[in-house]
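To assess whether ligand presence alters the predicted conformation, the chain was also submitted together with S-adenosylmethionine. Input:
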Amino acid sequence: MERADKVWQNSALVATYLEGVRGGIPLAQEQIDVMLRLIAAAGGERALSFLDLGCGDGVLGNAVLDRFPSAHGVLADFSEPMLEAARQRMAQHTGRAQYVHADYGLPDWVDAVRPFAPFDAVVSGYSIHHQPDQRKREVYGEIYGLLASGGIFVNVEHVSSPTDWLGAMQDELFVDNLHAIHPGQTRAEVASVYYNRSDKAANILAPVELQCQWLREIGFTDVDCYLKIFEEAVFGGRK
Ligand SMILES: C[S@@+](CC[C@H](N)C(=O)[O-])C[C@H]1O[C@@H](n2cnc3c(N)ncnc32)[C@H](O)[C@@H]1O
C-alpha cells in the first residue's frame, strides 16, 4: 500500500491534488460554508484561535482567516511541499498564521501545537482518513484535549460508503465534477486518472456514523454529520 507519509512528500502529487483534484470535490464550497457557520455559532466572531490540521495549502484555514478578521491560526502538516503552498496561498494574511511541521500519526504532534492552544476551533480537511481507525479515534481525543471549553472541531472528510453501489455513485459524481473543471480532456481520460491516482491506496475510510460515535464517547457535544454527499462529509462536535 502507498503510505500517506510517502504520497504527500511528493511535489508532483501535491501539485496534482491542488491544481487538479481539490476543485472537483463535490459541494466543496458548501462544506466550507457549513464549517464557517459552525465556527461563527461557536463564538468565532470574537478573536478566534484555530488549528488547521493536515492543512495542505491552507484552503480551510484561509477561509477562516477571510471570514473572521480577528482570527489567527496554526496550520499544521507533515508535507514540506504543502506547507510551502500554504505559505504562498496565505501571503495576504501575514502575521495571522503560524506554520508547524508535525506528523499527527504520532501522539507527540500535540507538543508541536500545544504552545498555541487552547484553540477555539480545530478544522481538518481530507486528511485524518489516512490514519488507521484506532489512530483516528486517538487523534480526535488529542484534538479534544487541545480545544478550549466551547470550542468546535469540524472535520471535512472523506468517509466510507455503506455499499459498493453507493461507492460507485461517489466515483461517478467525482469524475463528472473533475471532467467539468478539465473540459479539454474526455470523460474517459479524466476517469482513468481518477481511478489510477496514487493517493487512493493511502485512504483508510471509515463510516461517518462510527466516527460521530467516537466523538460522543470522547466527550464532544452537538456531534453530528452536518453535511454529506456520498463519501464527502462535514462532521464534528463541540467541547
Ligand atoms: C488531501 S490533502 C488535504 C489538504 C487540505 N486540508 C484540503 O482540505 O484540501 C491531505 C493533507 O493531509 C496531510 N497529512 C496527511 N497525513 C498527515 C499526518 N500524519 N500528519 C500531518 N499531515 C498529514 C498531507 O500532507 C496533505 O497536506
